[in-house]
Amino acid sequence: MAKPWDYIAKVVNIGDSGCGKSSLTIRLCEGRFTPSHEVTIGVDFGSRIIPVSDDPPKKIKLQIWDTAGQESFRAITRGYFRGATGALLVFDVTRRETYEHAQSWLEELRSAADSNISIILVGNKADLVEPELGGRVERRKVTREEAEEWVQKNGVRAYVETSAKTGEKVEEAFVECAKEIYRNIVEGVYDMKDRSHGIKENTTKVSMGIDEQTRTKGGCC
């Protein structure tokens, strides 16, 4: 029997309140959307096993820490950044101020987390940016081009536009983060014995079924 996962990594969702961080986690982990989801107080949790390599086959279990975005919880939220291996920095593409605040979130994250943390910038609520009423209303406040330029300028891994409501590219955002973490593992960036990196290898020995044991022994009688 193969291991269910090879590594487990801590990933934090950060950004202003109301950007859909919790909805992204729920969509990824439970495959559903709840429009009336309550505001996160402190931190919520989710997890998902993601394949990151076919040869050799490897999987990472993302332990997702969904943090509060309100200013009143900022000090508490900052404490959860320590030990994070990856992060989704989320803003709302229809609220420009949430994009502008991404810079301060990034600075706080990098001051508390490991220097090799894998960061994905996520523009959520992409389902709201299509022109309505025959093109007379445009709700987009942040262009894809300027977000991609921000990513390049700030040394962030990638920019992904998502919709927690429709599920569009939600999995892609988390997969991008997981694959960057795995690349760092392969390149020896992390000391796997140091828990402060927020990543742990599954060292459980794989047990073999009866058929596998028989094939391994070989021979006769």
TrEMBL record:
Extent of the signal sequence: none
Pfam families named in the record: Ras
Family annotation (InterPro entries): P-loop_NTPase, Rab_GTPases_membrane_traffic, Small_GTP-bd, Small_GTPase
Spans traversing the lipid bilayer: none
GO function terms (MF aspect): GTP binding; GTPase activity
CDD domains (alphabetical): Rab
Positions in coiled-coil regions: none
Family in the record: Belongs to the small GTPase superfamily. Rab family.
Name this protein carries in UniProt: Ras-domain-containing protein
